[in-house]
Amino acid sequence: MKTSSASSNETLTEAGIGNFQNAVQEMVSSESFIKGIQSALFTPSFIENFSKSIVTSATFVQSITQLVDQKVQHHDNKIKILENENGQLKKRLTALESKVNDIEQYHKRRDLIITGIPEAPNENTTSIIIQLANDLGMNLNEKDIYASHRLPSKGKIKPIIVGFIRYNDRNNFIPRRRQLKTIAGCEKIYVNEHLTQSNSSLFYYAKQNLSKLTVYKKR
User: Fold this and answer.
1) What one-character DSSP code corresponds to residue 118?
2) CA atoms lying within 13 Å on the CB side of residue 82
3) Distance between CA atoms of 57 and 150, rounded to whole angstroms?
4) Average pLDDT over residues 137-162
5) pLDDT band with cut points at 50, 70 and 90 for residue 1
6) What span, in angstroms and rounded, lies between the C-alpha atoms of 191 and 114?
7) Sign of the C-alpha dihedral, residues 150, 151, 157, 159?
8) Distance between CA 190 and CA 112 in Å, rounded?
9) Among 15-29, 86-100, 110-124, 179-193, where is mean pLDDT lowest?
């Protein structure tokens, strides 16, 4: 009798568990239960508390920190690459500018710029330069000069640029310019090399900052 009673109780228990599971399944599957869960989960207070629990968790903070560090490192690497490329481009640009400046200066090597000669109507600048050269003891004629003309200027007297056929004639003219101070009417005439804009700026800077020393232009 005891064995039969135990078996009966076990069967009842299993049946009870099965009924309970079925009841739970029906409850969970019911539309009212689902709506209840949804309304509970999507309340502003629940969402706020849930969000706070996420963003304040150590795992979340660590994940965000790692992500930010990775992005920063990635951008740092790109910046270093770009800075290196920019440095190389600057070096190449400087080298090209220097080369262009040298070429431009080379083409001006036979030129001189003469300032302080008053302008006259229908003047012939080549004749003026030849006369000035003769006053300085040089024997020049029109065949020794390939071009000469006045340059635009904001000043009252426009300078004259003259190009010599021979480089030596131009070089012989330069040291004689000191004699202009001793020739009547030529005291305010100055003879200078025709420099590029870059070289002219460099020469002006040197004169302003090295006033205690003598600054010479490269012939």
Assistant:
1) P
2) 6
3) 82
4) 93
5) very low
6) 5
7) negative
8) 10
9) 15-29
Helix axes of 31-41 and 2-29: crossing angle, nearest 10 degrees: 60
Instruction: Report the amino acid identity of residue 60.
Output: F
- 190-193: strand order across its sheet: 145-150, 160-164, 111-115, 190-193
Q: Where are the alpha helices (DSSP H) in 42-166?
A: 44-55, 58-107, 125-135
- pTM of the predicted model, to two decimals? 0.60
Gap between the Cα atoms of 107 and 32, Å rounded:
95
What's the CA dihedral at 130, 136, 137, 140 to 10 degrees? -20
d(CA 217, CA 109): 12
CB contact at 8 A, 160 and 150: yes
Task: Indicate the DSSP class of residue 171.
Answer: H
- Please give the span between the terminal C-alpha atoms of the chain, in angstroms, as a whole number: 133
One-letter identity of residue 71: K
Q: Which two tokens stand for residue 100?
A: 């262009």
CB atoms under 10 Å from CB of 200, counted, come to 14
Dist CA 191 CA 132 (whole Å)? 11
175, containing H or E segment? helix 167-176
| CB-based contacts of 194, cutoff 8 Å, min separation 6 | 108, 111, 112, 113, 161
pLDDT at position 86 is 95
Residues 200/142, Cβ–Cβ less than 8 Å: no
Q: How many CA atoms lie within 13 A of 71 on its CB side?
A: 6
